Amino acid sequence: MLRVINCIAFAHDFALVALAAVICAVGAAVSVHLLKKVFVTASTARFAWGFIGAIAAGSTIWCTHYVAMLAFEPGVPVAYDFGPTLLSLFVAIVGCVAAYGIAGERFAYAAPVGGVVFGLAISAMHYTGMTAFSTRAVMAWNMNYVVASVVLAVLLGVLAFYLTQRMRGIRRIVEGAGVMVLAIVSLHFTGMAALEITPLAASATEVTTAEARDMIAIAVAGVCLLVLGTGAVAYFLDNQVRAFATLRFRHLAESAVDGMAVVRGNQILGANSEFARMVKMSKADIVGKSAETFIDQVGQYQEGKLSAADLKRADGTCLPVELAVQTEQVSDDGQPLTILALRDISQRLAQEEKISFLAQYDSLTGLRNRASFLENTQSILEWAGKESCYAVIAIDLDRFKEINDMYGHAAGDKVLVKTGQRLKETLAAHQFAARIGGDEFVVFSEIEHQDDAIHLAERLERELGQNIEHEGVVLKSPASFGVALYPEDGRQINTLLNNADLAMYRAKTSDDQQICLYDKGMDDSIRKRRQLVDELRLGIQTDQLVLHYQVQMNVPDETVAGYEALVRWHHPEKGLMPPMTFIPLAEQTGLIGMLGEWVLRKACEEAAGWPSKLPVSVNLSPAQLTAPNFAEQVQDILLESGLPPERLELEVTESSFISDQKKAIAVLQKLKDMGIAISVDDFGTGYSSLAMLRAFPFDKIKLDKSLIDDIDNNQRSKGVFRAVLSLGDALSVPILAEGVENKEQLSFLLEHGCHLVQGFYYGKPQRYEMLSPQKETPVKVVGIKG
Q1: Where is the MHYT domain (predicted)?
Q2: What residues contact 217, with CB distance under 8 A and at least 6 apart?
Q3: Which of 92, 287, 430, 583 could form a disulfide with 125 if both were Cys (CB 3.0 to 4.6 A apart)?
């Protein structure tokens, strides 16, 4: 060690030694910077950085060596051979290329192995360069110092490469370059201490020390320029690469559909437009803020893994996002950049929530659906105590199908929505409702006594029975209620619901009872009724129905004035069924509209084929009259069947005017304008028959059978009949008496001027082809004779 110090102190020019140190420090800084590029660059670009760095490192070693040689003062003239001098530069650069190339590989100890090669490259360059040193003296080498110089160079080379790979920031530059300087300098001065020079006589032909210095100075200056040029090129390329990467990142970030932000440390360096939109801030306001301004504990999210997070926004709200974190070493200052990629998942979560809601709730009313109701109630019943009591109330909206048919699905939906609202408003916290079918609802409630269930059903009946307004029309859809109780009517929810359903159907068939409690005896009758409803629907669809016709007579001249079409059902098992067995059922279950259309179409088709040109009368139900586009439907049926409008007579009853008189009158007027005759049926049985005659100009009045039954022996009936005849005469409206069954009734009618009659006296309703031939009158309205 003392020999090395003496070598530096007494055999060197301090000024040139200082210059060598400066050159070595600058070159080492450039070399370390480029070495770090090799470590942090993942692509094949690291080989380019390695090559440039190797040139800088090798040139630094060579320049340091020869400047230090200029500082060396052995006391004898020296000279430098050109070949070995140039060869030493080549050895230095090639050795450094190998060292940087190995260090850039991706195996475990690449950096230390590269450091070993770097130390050997310094050693090889030094001792190759010393072969160019010539003087008139005997030179001897102390091998101990030679070995020590190589060991120092290798160890310090390994440390320099290790620190460059591991260190971050400016510390990496300082420590890595410092150790690299030590590796070069320790090798040189320890190697120079190993050299022993014994002077001999000088030769006049040898290059003098001054001339040798000039030559080396020129070479060193050139190589120094190479080092500086390499550094400048590296700086330029680095800036270009950074600028290109930044520009590409910005383009990618702005074109990305996801929000992106770049963070260094915990500070946001930049963000794209989508991120700004998501947080409701401008990009300028985002830059410089902490990442945790927007995402709490952002550092806890794992890299390379999608995580759910809440993005805090400027307005105080939070946006659900999917977050991906990626760390990139895109700069050489040691501090990585963290890229936050965020995707707005609010719509996806809303869709998932909607799907989850639809899986349990009805989308129209917001009530539970059938599956959710069954699951929830069964769970309650399974945990029910011995003293627990519950009620299941099945609810079915009466005439809901008629509302759908008459006013359209929008009106039907309005009824369902309003029903759902009223159920929610009426029920308490321990009660809940569900929609389990088209117009079927169910309520589940904990109760103490049976009376609680009845009172609840009565309250629901009042609420659901209120009118509903829709586009200027008052809709009425009262409900029928069936009640089943736990545990007496069943312990499973399916059993309870089925029994409540049976009770509800019993209530629907009752004329004066809207609420019915389940009892075991009603099962068979309800099931038979349901079966009959299904069979009737099938019968309408498959033409099991037939039309019978009853003759309408003009009595004085015994001519036929027309026929009334009456429907019969030819059941495949039960045979011919009279109307009273299935028409009320059709009215109660909403099939009356379908049935009425079938009768009207069939009557027109058959009448169009009769050899006679007499009119046919068809009864209309209130559901048909108030159905949307009914007048157009009648017109289409006439066109399709070929029946002239003046041969069709439509009969309406007082009930057709009850729900919506204005609409009924408007539809009847359209039909009358087509040439269709309109008659009032069952006159005298309602409370507002006279009001009907005032409201619309009917073409005929048909007296109900109840006014004819005892007309031959009841003075009150005779008085009412005479009054009606006078009313018809005053209004110039013909009158037809229904239900004439005997000669006494017929004689009384003729005596008082009623010439149009209908009833069993002239025969029961039959198929048209089975009717007895009768003398026919022309198609005209037959009035009252004197």
Answers
A1: 12-198
A2: 70
A3: 92
Burial 737-760 (b: 16+ CB within 10 A, else e): bbbbeeeebbebbeeebbbbbbbe
Greatest Cα pair distance in the chain: 178
pLDDT of residue 300: 80
pLDDT of residue 216: 60
**Which residues are within 8 A (CB) of 530 and not within 5 positions of it... i.e. 6 or more apart?**
505
Please indicate, yes or no, whether the overall pTM of this predicted structure exceeds 0.85: no
SS (H, E, C) 462-526: HHHCCCEEECCEEECCCEEEEEEEECCCCCCHHHHHHHHHHHHHHHHHCCCCCEEECCHHHHHHH
**Distance in angstroms (rounded) separating the CA atoms of residues 298 and 341:** 12
The DSSP element (H or E) to which 349 belongs, if any, is: helix 346-360
Architecture of domain 258-350: 2-Layer Sandwich (3.30)
**Does the domain formed by 361-518 have CATH 3.20.20.70?**
no
Q: What is the rounded radius of gyration, in angstroms, for the C-alpha atoms of the chain?
A: 55
Question: Does the pLDDT value for residue 415 go beyond 50?
Answer: yes
Asked if residue 116 lies in contact with residue 95, where contact means CB atoms within 8 angstroms, the answer is no
Query: How many residues are present in the chain?
Result: 786
Q: What is the pLDDT of residue 236?
A: 66
Q: For 217-304, where are the E strands, in sequence order?
A: 259-264, 267-271
Q: What percent of the chain lies above the pLDDT cut of 90?
A: 30
Q: How confident is the model at residue 205 (pLDDT cuts 50, 70, 90)?
A: very low
What is the percentage of the chain residues whose pLDDT exceeds 70?
A: 85
d(CA 382, CA 360): 20
* DSSP for residue 303: B
Helices (H) and strands (E) in the chain, counts: 25, 26
Check: CB of residue 532 under 8 Å from CB of residue 525: no
**C-beta neighbour count of 762 within 10 angstroms:** 20
Question: Any idea where the domains of the chain sit in the sequence?
Answer: 2-238, 258-350, 361-518, 539-776
Q: What is the pLDDT of residues 661-714, one digit of tens each?
A: 788 899 999 999 999 999 998 887 665 567 778 888 999 999 888 888 888 777
CATH number of 539-776: 3.20.20.450
pLDDT at residue 550 is higher than 90: yes
Q: Give the pairing type, strands 756-758 and 515-517.
A: unpaired
Give the number of other CB atoms < 10 A from CB of residue 98: 17
Other residues' Cβ atoms within 10 Å of the Cβ of residue 405: 23
d(CA 269, CA 88): 47
C-alpha 60/C-alpha 123 separation (Å) is: 13
Contact 761, 740 (CB under 8 A): yes
Residue (of 743, 758, 760) closest to 704 by Cα position: 758
Mean pLDDT of the chain: 83
